[in-house]
Amino acid sequence: MKLRYIKYFLVITVFAYACKKSEHIQEKVETFLGFQKPKNFPETAYNFANNPVTKEGFELGRMLFYEPRLSRDNTITCGSCHIQSSAFTQHGHDVSHGIEDRLGTRNSPPIMNLAWNKAFMWGGGIYDLDLFPISPITTHEEMDESLENVLNKLRSLDKYKSKFKAAFGSEEISTGKFLKALSQFMLMCVSSNSKYDKVMRKEGNASFTTTELEGYELFKQKCSSCHAEPLFTDNGFRNNGLVPSSINDLGLYTATLLATDKYKFKVPSLRNLKYTGPFMHDGRFLTLDAVFTHYAHEVQATENLDPLLNKNGIRGISINSDEKTKLMAFLNTLNDEEFINNKLLAEQ
C-alpha cells in the first residue's frame, strides 16, 4: 500500500512538473519579442527611435490593417489588396481592386521587409513608412476615404479607444498615432526564413542543391546588380525596357517631374515569387517564364533604359534554357512559407 502511494505521488509530481514546463514553454512562445533584425540582414532604414514596436502598438496596427472602416463604404481593408497567403499581395489581379471593384493602375506591391525601404510605391513619391497608408486610404480607385472620416469612425468605437490607450497611453485617436500603429504592424512583416536565409546563416544542415548553387552563381552574374542580396532589391528605381502601357504610366517621373525619371519603377524584391504573381508594376506578366522571356528577348529601347540592360548596343540579358532552369531553382529558395503562415500577422 505504501509503495503504491509513493508511485502515485511520483506520477502526480511528474505530471505537475510536465504541465508547468509546458505552460512555461507556451508562455515563452507567446512572448512578444518586438522587431528583431535577422542576422543576415543589413541595418534598417526606418527610425525605430521615433516609433518603437510594442506588443500593444503592433496589435492595434494589426486591427487597423484588417479594419474595413478605413474605406469609404466600409468594405475594403489593407488586407484586401495585401493578402498574407500571397506574401501580402493581391494574387491573381494584374492591378489592384478597390471599393466598388474599381480598378487601379498598378499591381499591389508586397508588404514585406519595409523596415529596409527608403521609398515606397512603384512610382515613388512617398519616403516615410508612417505616411505610406495615406495614399491607399485617400486614392479614388482604392479606399476613397479621408483620414478625418476614418478617425471619426474609430473614435465612435470603445474598443479602439482602449486599444489606443494601451498602445500610446491615451484614448486620443490622432492621425499620428493611427499611422504609427499601422507602421508597427507593417514593420513586423519580415520575410527572412527562406531556404536561402537558412543557408546563409548556416542553420542546421541547410545547403543548396547542385542546381540551386549553380543558379546562385548565375544570379550573382546576371541579376544581382539590381536585385542585391539579402533583400533582393537595391530599393532603387530603374527602367527595365517594358513597352509603355496603354495609359502611358511614366513611373517615378510622376513624383519628381524629372525627364531622366520617365519610365523608371521601383525594383521589386525577388523574395516569395511563388506567391506574388503576376509580375511587373502593372502585373502584365502572369508567369516567371514570361519575365525571363522579356529580359532575354523583349527589352525595348525606351527613354531612360537602364544601362545595365543596354551593354555594347545589345539589349537585355543573355539567358539560355539551361540557365533559366538553374536560376529558377535558386529563386525558389527565396520562398518563405513561415512568413505567409505566420499566425501573428493574420487577422485575429
From TrEMBL:
SUPFAM superfamilies referenced in this protein's UniProt entry, alphabetically: Cytochrome c (SSF46626)
Record InterPro entries: Cyt_c-like_dom, Cyt_c-like_dom_sf, Cytochrome_c_Peroxidase/MauG, Di-haem_cyt_c_peroxidsae, MauG/Cytc_peroxidase
Domain of life: Bacteria
Keyword GTP-binding: no
Chief localisation class: periplasm
Protein name (database record): Cytochrome-c peroxidase
Subcellular location as annotated: Periplasm
Gene3D superfamilies: Cytochrome c-like domain (1.10.760.10)
Species name: Pedobacter ureilyticus
UniProtKB keywords: Heme, Iron, Metal-binding, Oxidoreductase, Periplasm, Peroxidase, Signal
PROSITE patterns with a match to the protein in the record: CYTC, PROKAR_LIPOPROTEIN
A Pfam match: CCP_MauG
GO molecular-function terms, A-Z: peroxidase activity
Domain Cytochrome c: from-to ranges: 210-335
